[in-house]
Specification:
Layout lengths: L2 H12 L19 E7 L2 E11 L13 E10 L3 H19 L7 E8 L6 H6 L3 E10 L14 E5 L5 H15 L11 H10 L9 E6 L2 E9 L16 E9 L8 H15 L4 E7 L5 H7 L3 E9 L5
Parallel strand pairs: 3-4, 9-10
Antiparallel strand pairs: 1-2, 2-3, 4-11, 5-10, 5-11, 6-7, 7-8, 8-9
Helix pairs in contact: 4-5
Protein name: Acetyltransferase
Keywords: Acyltransferase, Transferase
GO molecular function, one term: acyltransferase activity, transferring groups other than amino-acyl groups
Length: 312
């Protein structure tokens, strides 16, 4: 079965799984990629393994291993899990030839639609773990009055004087998420975060807001509007896609309503600019963020299965 036939079967299968999944055409090789295929039990799989590398000082380095081998897969037939298992065998053979054993800065990652569960057991058996999720919240147009107020909480656009507060909140968030494998703390993290956040301060169209609890700045939220989300908008079947970059609340203010107020404010802003769906990443094992985001109307759309080191 050729790759286009497999892609067509894959699309037909997923159409019954999740209406918010985008179209997924046949996999086209890119520079440095390796095409893979496999068959099993009258089912077939096509895969594309892509190697990417990030420097330790890059803005992306906290969120990934420095070297990542990512597998994109298309599965069709009556037993897609068997096809994926056979494809993973081919991929492991490739990884053993190109990835150094035991290197924690080399990861193998498979990104799968969250509701496409066949194959999950096969990934677990091979040492993969579900680490990260892209969650989606379809638009929910609010009334012009906006979300209800939270007693004691005031939300305002971040200003230049808020840089130290914002950096501290982002560092606290990264340290917490590092426990769950979705973040790697890097040397110079504070300086990198400061350089990134300083670009968000004082913008005419704010993308970063500070939450004050009885006058103390104890939370923040960062967003990207639809004209800034070309890097991720193809992950959902929507035309205008927003991205919630991060939401952080200082430890003393957790469970006070600050986080809920910040999320509601961000959703109001997204709704006002005509966003059709909002995406965000969160650590799946995080016992705070997972229930929090789903209480705000999100649900899993894509799951990152990771094995790190890529070869053990």
């Amino acid at each position: 079965m050729n790759s286009h036939a497999i892609a067509a079967g894959h699309a037909e299968r997923l159409a019954t799984v999740d209406a918010l999944l985008p179209e997924m055409p046949a996999l086209e090789p890119v520079e440095g990629s390796v095409s893979l295929s496999a068959t099993a039990d009258e089912s077939a799989a096509a895969g594309l393994s892509v190697r990417t590398e990030a420097g330790p000082d890059s803005v992306d380095s906290p969120w990934r291993a420095l070297v990542e081998h990512r597998l994109e897969a298309r599965l069709t037939g009556p037993r897609p899990e068997a096809a994926l298992d056979a494809l993973l065998t081919r991929w492991d053979e490739h990884l053993m030839a190109v990835a150094p054993p035991g290197d924690v800065e080399t990861a193998a990652t498979v990104v799968r639609p969250s509701r496409d569960s066949p194959g999950s057991a096969e990934l677990l058996r091979r040492g993969f773990a579900p680490v990260l999720v892209i969650a989606v919240r379809p638009a929910d147009r609010l009334t012009m009055t906006g979300p209800p107020a939270t007693p004691g909480v005031h939300i305002r656009p971040a200003e230049a004087d808020d840089l130290e507060t914002a950096v501290g909140l982002e560092l606290e968030l990264q340290r917490y998420d590092a426990q769950f494998g979705s973040v790697t703390l890097r040397e110079g993290a504070k300086e990198a975060i400061a350089a990134d956040l300083s670009k968000q301060l004082g913008r005419e169209n704010p993308t970063l807001w500070i939450a004050e609890l009885y006058g103390r700045p104890l939370g923040m939220v960062r967003v990207q509007f639809p004209d800034e989300t070309s890097w991720i908008c193809d992950r959902v079947a929507a035309d205008r896609v927003g991205y919630l970059s991060s939401l952080a609340v200082a430890e003393p203010a957790r469970s006070s309503g600050v986080g809920t107020a910040l999320a509601a404010h961000a959703h109001q802003v997204f709704d006002e600019c005509g966003t059709e769906a909002v995406l965000l990443h969160h650590a799946l094992a995080n016992p705070r963020s997972t229930p929090f985001w789903y209480a705000q109307g999100y649900r899993p759309l894509w799951t990152y299965w990771q094995r790190r080191p890529a070869v053990r």
